[in-house]
Protein backbone atom coordinates (compact mmCIF):
# COMPACT_ATOMS: atom_id res chain seq x y z
CA UNK A 1 0.00 0.00 0.00
CA UNK A 2 1.51 3.33 -1.01
CA UNK A 3 0.98 6.43 1.07
CA UNK A 4 -0.38 9.52 -0.66
CA UNK A 5 0.42 11.89 2.18
CA UNK A 6 1.33 15.42 1.24
CA UNK A 7 3.45 18.03 2.98
CA UNK A 8 0.21 19.70 4.08
CA UNK A 9 -0.66 16.51 6.02
CA UNK A 10 2.56 16.59 8.09
CA UNK A 11 3.41 20.29 8.25
CA UNK A 12 3.30 22.01 11.59
CA UNK A 13 2.33 25.55 10.53
CA UNK A 14 4.62 27.16 13.04
CA UNK A 15 7.94 28.83 12.45
CA UNK A 16 10.04 31.47 14.09
CA UNK A 17 10.44 34.62 12.07
CA UNK A 18 12.31 37.87 12.57
CA UNK A 19 13.30 40.98 10.65
CA UNK A 20 16.60 41.52 8.82
CA UNK A 21 17.35 44.38 11.21
CA UNK A 22 16.97 42.28 14.37
CA UNK A 23 20.21 41.66 16.20
CA UNK A 24 21.91 38.29 16.47
CA UNK A 25 21.66 38.54 20.26
CA UNK A 26 17.88 39.14 20.28
CA UNK A 27 17.35 36.44 17.66
CA UNK A 28 19.36 33.88 19.62
CA UNK A 29 17.19 34.58 22.67
CA UNK A 30 14.07 34.17 20.53
CA UNK A 31 15.23 30.80 19.20
CA UNK A 32 16.01 29.63 22.73
CA UNK A 33 12.58 30.72 23.98
CA UNK A 34 10.82 29.03 21.07
CA UNK A 35 13.08 25.94 21.21
CA UNK A 36 13.68 26.17 17.48
CA UNK A 37 16.75 25.46 15.38
CA UNK A 38 16.07 27.81 12.47
CA UNK A 39 14.74 31.29 12.03
CA UNK A 40 13.10 32.64 8.86
CA UNK A 41 14.27 36.16 8.07
CA UNK A 42 11.32 38.22 6.84
CA UNK A 43 10.94 41.48 4.98
CA UNK A 44 7.35 42.30 5.84
CA UNK A 45 5.65 38.93 5.31
CA UNK A 46 8.05 37.75 2.63
CA UNK A 47 10.92 35.37 3.43
CA UNK A 48 14.32 36.70 2.40
CA UNK A 49 16.67 34.44 4.33
CA UNK A 50 17.26 31.67 6.79
CA UNK A 51 19.48 31.55 9.90
CA UNK A 52 20.39 28.49 11.96
CA UNK A 53 21.23 28.30 15.65
CA UNK A 54 24.67 27.13 14.55
CA UNK A 55 25.22 30.34 12.54
CA UNK A 56 24.15 32.50 15.49
CA UNK A 57 26.47 30.57 17.80
CA UNK A 58 29.33 31.20 15.36
CA UNK A 59 28.70 34.95 15.71
CA UNK A 60 29.03 34.64 19.50
CA UNK A 61 32.24 32.64 19.19
CA UNK A 62 33.66 35.24 16.81
CA UNK A 63 32.66 38.01 19.25
CA UNK A 64 30.45 39.76 16.72
CA UNK A 65 27.00 39.14 18.20
CA UNK A 66 26.23 42.50 19.80
CA UNK A 67 26.08 44.73 16.73
CA UNK A 68 25.44 42.16 14.02
CA UNK A 69 21.99 41.88 12.43
CA UNK A 70 20.25 38.91 10.86
CA UNK A 71 20.67 40.59 7.49
CA UNK A 72 24.43 40.30 7.98
CA UNK A 73 24.45 36.57 8.80
CA UNK A 74 21.45 35.08 6.99
CA UNK A 75 21.71 32.89 3.95
CA UNK A 76 19.49 33.65 1.01
CA UNK A 77 20.12 30.16 -0.31
CA UNK A 78 17.03 28.22 0.69
CA UNK A 79 14.50 26.08 -1.12
CA UNK A 80 10.76 26.45 -1.22
CA UNK A 81 8.11 23.81 -1.80
CA UNK A 82 4.34 23.81 -2.03
CA UNK A 83 2.16 22.02 0.51
CA UNK A 84 0.58 19.74 -2.09
CA UNK A 85 3.72 17.78 -3.00
CA UNK A 86 4.08 14.27 -1.64
CA UNK A 87 5.97 13.56 1.55
CA UNK A 88 8.33 11.26 -0.36
CA UNK A 89 9.11 14.01 -2.90
CA UNK A 90 9.80 16.41 -0.01
CA UNK A 91 12.06 13.82 1.64
CA UNK A 92 14.04 13.53 -1.60
CA UNK A 93 14.75 17.28 -1.44
CA UNK A 94 16.62 16.75 1.85
CA UNK A 95 19.18 14.39 0.34
CA UNK A 96 22.50 16.21 0.54
CA UNK A 97 20.91 19.30 2.11
CA UNK A 98 21.05 20.52 5.69
CA UNK A 99 18.51 23.33 5.61
CA UNK A 100 14.77 23.15 6.19
CA UNK A 101 12.38 23.79 3.32
CA UNK A 102 10.13 26.85 3.31
CA UNK A 103 6.57 25.82 2.49
CA UNK A 104 4.82 28.41 0.34
CA UNK A 105 1.13 28.42 -0.58
CA UNK A 106 0.13 30.94 -3.26
CA UNK A 107 3.12 33.15 -2.41
CA UNK A 108 2.51 33.03 1.37
CA UNK A 109 4.89 31.33 3.79
CA UNK A 110 2.84 28.80 5.76
CA UNK A 111 5.54 26.83 7.51
CA UNK A 112 9.03 25.43 7.73
CA UNK A 113 9.52 21.73 6.96
CA UNK A 114 12.44 19.95 8.60
CA UNK A 115 13.78 16.42 8.33
CA UNK A 116 12.52 15.86 11.85
CA UNK A 117 8.97 16.78 10.76
CA UNK A 118 9.10 14.07 8.11
CA UNK A 119 10.63 11.48 10.42
CA UNK A 120 8.14 12.07 13.21
CA UNK A 121 5.06 12.43 10.99
CA UNK A 122 2.22 10.00 11.57
CA UNK A 123 2.36 7.12 9.16
CA UNK A 124 -0.44 5.50 7.20
CA UNK A 125 -1.84 2.07 7.96
CA UNK A 126 0.76 -0.73 8.18
CA UNK A 127 1.61 -2.20 4.78
CA UNK A 128 2.30 -5.81 3.84
CA UNK A 129 6.05 -5.34 4.45
CA UNK A 130 5.54 -4.10 8.03
CA UNK A 131 7.01 -6.24 10.79
CA UNK A 132 5.82 -6.14 14.39
CA UNK A 133 8.14 -5.88 17.36
CA UNK A 134 6.67 -7.17 20.60
CA UNK A 135 8.16 -6.96 24.03
CA UNK A 136 6.94 -8.72 27.14
CA UNK A 137 3.93 -6.95 28.59
CA UNK A 138 3.46 -4.52 25.72
CA UNK A 139 1.30 -4.19 22.64
CA UNK A 140 2.90 -5.00 19.27
CA UNK A 141 4.51 -1.95 17.70
CA UNK A 142 4.47 -1.71 13.89
CA UNK A 143 7.86 -0.85 12.41
CA UNK A 144 8.42 -0.62 8.66
CA UNK A 145 11.32 -2.88 7.65
CA UNK A 146 12.96 -0.09 5.63
CA UNK A 147 13.20 2.15 8.69
CA UNK A 148 13.30 -0.39 11.51
CA UNK A 149 16.82 0.61 12.45
CA UNK A 150 16.66 4.39 11.93
CA UNK A 151 14.61 7.25 13.29
CA UNK A 152 14.27 9.72 16.14
CA UNK A 153 15.31 8.63 19.63
CA UNK A 154 12.35 9.04 21.98
CA UNK A 155 14.63 9.99 24.87
CA UNK A 156 17.01 12.60 23.43
CA UNK A 157 15.31 13.50 20.13
CA UNK A 158 18.39 12.78 17.99
CA UNK A 159 18.15 11.12 14.59
CA UNK A 160 20.03 7.85 14.54
CA UNK A 161 20.57 5.02 12.09
CA UNK A 162 20.76 2.49 14.94
CA UNK A 163 17.45 2.70 16.77
CA UNK A 164 16.44 -0.12 19.13
CA UNK A 165 13.11 -0.69 20.88
CA UNK A 166 13.79 -0.89 24.64
CA UNK A 167 10.98 -0.99 27.22
CA UNK A 168 8.51 0.05 24.53
CA UNK A 169 10.54 3.12 23.46
CA UNK A 170 12.71 3.61 20.38
CA UNK A 171 16.14 4.60 21.71
CA UNK A 172 19.57 5.40 20.30
CA UNK A 173 22.57 3.49 21.59
CA UNK A 174 23.55 6.35 23.93
CA UNK A 175 20.15 6.42 25.65
CA UNK A 176 19.81 2.64 26.01
CA UNK A 177 22.46 2.62 28.70
CA UNK A 178 20.91 5.45 30.74
Automatic annotation (TrEMBL):
Residues binding Zn(2+), per UniProt: 153, 156, 172, 175
Xref: InterPro entries: ACP_MB, CBS_dom, CBS_dom_sf, Diverse_CBS-Domain
Organism: Halocatena marina
Name used for this protein in its record: CBS domain-containing protein
Pfam short name (any one): CBS
UniProt key word Zinc: yes
Keywords, comma-separated and alphabetical: CBS domain, Iron, Metal-binding, Zinc
GO molecular function: metal ion binding
ACP-type MB domain span: 148-178
Domain of life: Archaea
Entry binding sites for Fe cation: 153, 156, 172, 175
Limits of the CBS domain: 11-68, 74-130
Amino acid sequence: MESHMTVRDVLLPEFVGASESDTVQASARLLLEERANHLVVLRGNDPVGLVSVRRLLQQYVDGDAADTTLGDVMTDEYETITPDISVSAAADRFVGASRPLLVMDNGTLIGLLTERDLLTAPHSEPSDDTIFVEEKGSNPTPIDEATADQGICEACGAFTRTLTVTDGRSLCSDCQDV
